[in-house]
Amino acid sequence: MNMYTILIVEDDTKLSGLLHSYIRKYGFDAKEVESFDDVMESFKKTKPHLVLLDVNLPKYDGFYWCRQIRTYSLCPILFISAREHQMDQVMALENGADDYITKPFHYEVVMAKIRSHLRRVYGEYSLGHEEKKTEAGTLVLYPERLLVTYGKTGAELTQKEAILLEALMAKEGRVVSRNQLLDLMWADHHFIDDNTLNVYVSRVRKKLKELGTQMAVETIRGAGYRLSSEAGDSI
C-alpha cells in the first residue's frame, strides 16, 4: 500500500494527537502543523496527499488557509469542525474544501472519508497507464489531472468538481439525476445537505463560463442536470 501523508491542522492538541494515532493505525503517515502562524510552511514542507483542517484556528481561520492551499495544490481538504451551521459548510466548500465533518465525530467515519478521498484522487494511478479523458464537443476533461480544457484554455478543478463534470460530460445532452450525482460524489450522501450539490454545480458553471465555451449545465426541474449547448460549440 502507498504511504499517503495526512496533514492535521487542528489546535486542540488532544484531538490532534488522537487523529494522529488513528491515521497511523490505519497505515498512513500523519503530520501535525508545527505553527499556526504559517500553515503553508508546514504544508509545503510536508507535501501531504490530504489535509484535515479545523475552522477555528489561532490568527487565521481554516477558510483562509483552505484558500491559500488551493493556490498551491489540489489535494483533498476535509474540514473538521464543531460549527454545524449550514453556512459554515457552504463557506468551506466555496473556499475549496472537498468535505466537511462536524464534531463530535466517530473516528471510523473520519478514516472512511479519508480512504474514500484518497481512492478517488490517487487510487487509479499506475505506472504506464493511458491517461483517462472525457470529451463533450470541444470540451476535454482530464480527471486524473483535475483539469478541463477548451481549445488552448484550461481550468483547474477540485476532485468533486471533476467527478460532477465527468458524469455530465459522459451523458452529454441527457439528464443526470441529483441522486446519481450524489452517489458518485459521496460514499454516503444521506448526511449531505441538498444545497451542497448546488454549490458544486454553481462552481462548475462558473468555470465553464470562464473558459468561454457554449457548453453549460442546465437545471432540469424535478429531474436533475444536463450538459448541453443550444448554440453549438466551436473554437
Automatic annotation (TrEMBL):
One Pfam family, short name please? Response_reg
Query: Might you name a Gene Ontology BP term for this protein?
Result: regulation of DNA-templated transcription
Q: Which InterPro entries match?
A: CheY-like_superfamily (IPR011006), OmpR/PhoB-type_DNA-bd (IPR001867), Sig_transdc_resp-reg_C-effctor (IPR016032), Sig_transdc_resp-reg_receiver (IPR001789), WalR-like (IPR039420), WH-like_DNA-bd_sf (IPR036388)
Does the record carry Transcription regulation as a key word?
yes
**Listed Gene3D superfamilies:** 3.40.50.2300, 6.10.250.690, Winged helix-like DNA-binding domain superfamily/Winged helix DNA-binding domain
Q: Where is it predominantly found?
A: cytoplasm
Q: Which residue numbers delimit the OmpR/PhoB-type domain?
A: 131-229
In what residue span(s) does the Response regulatory domain sit? 5-118
Q: Where in the cell is it found?
A: Cytoplasm
Q: Which GO terms describe its molecular function?
A: phosphorelay response regulator activity; transcription cis-regulatory region binding
Taxonomic superkingdom = Bacteria
Q: Which residues carry this modification: 4-aspartylphosphate?
A: D54
Which residues belong to the signal peptide in this entry?
none
Record SUPFAM superfamilies: C-terminal effector domain of the bipartite response regulators (SSF46894), CheY-like (SSF52172)
Question: What name appears for this protein in its UniProt entry?
Answer: DNA-binding response regulator, OmpR family, contains REC and winged-helix (WHTH) domain
The opening ranks of the lineage are: Bacteria, Bacillati, Bacillota, Bacilli, Bacillales
